[in-house]
Amino acid sequence: MFLPYAPFGKDYMMYRFQNRCLELPDLDYPDRLMYIYFNTSGTTPSYWEGESTAVSADALAQACSPLRKHLCV
Predict the structure, then answer these.
(1) How many CB atoms lie within 10 A of CB 16?
(2) What's the burial of 45, exposed, middle or buried (CB within 10 Å: 0-12/13-18/19+)?
(3) What average pLDDT score do residues 51-72 get?
(4) 19, 29 in Cβ contact below 8 A?
(5) Strand ranges for the chain from DSSP E
(6) Is the dihedral of CA 19, 63, 40, 67 positive or negative?
(7) Region of poorest pLDDT, from 13-17, 20-24, 43-47, 69-73
(8) Mean per-residue pLDDT of the chain
(9) Cβ–Cβ under 8 Å, residues 36 and 14
(10) Residue 39 burial by CB count (10 A; 0-12/13-18/19+): exposed, middle or buried?
(11) Domain residue ranges of the chain, discontinuous segments joined by +
C-alpha cells in the first residue's frame, strides 16, 4: 500500500509485516505472506531482510513520484 503519510506515526519509508505466533513471537508462520506499506513522505531508510544496504530515499522518491498524483493527501 502506498501512502503519502506515515501510517504508524514513525518516519520510515517502508513498513513490512509478516504473520507471527503471538504466544511465541520467535515462532515464524511460514506462509510467506507479507504486508508492505510505503510512506512516500518518509525519510528514514528501510532495510530488506538479509541486505546490508538501505533503500535510498532518492530511489523511493523516484519510484513513488508518478503515484503521488493518485494519492489522497
Answers:
(1) 13
(2) middle
(3) 62
(4) yes
(5) 2-3, 14-18, 34-39
(6) negative
(7) 69-73
(8) 77
(9) yes
(10) buried
(11) 2-68
Residue 61 is classified by DSSP as: H
Q: What is the pTM of this model?
A: 0.57
Q: What is the dihedral of CA 28, 25, 42, 5, to 10 degrees?
A: 100
Q: Are 18 and 33 in contact (CB under 8 A)?
A: yes
- Mean pLDDT, range 54-73, rounded to an integer: 62
5 touches 43 (CB < 8 A): no
- Please give the average per-residue pLDDT across 57-71, as a whole number: 65
Nearest C-alpha neighbor of 1 from the set 34, 44, 26: 34
pLDDT of 71 reads: 60
Question: How many residues appear in the chain?
Answer: 73
User: Is-contact 18 34, C-beta < 8 A?
Assistant: yes
Place of cell 517502508: 14
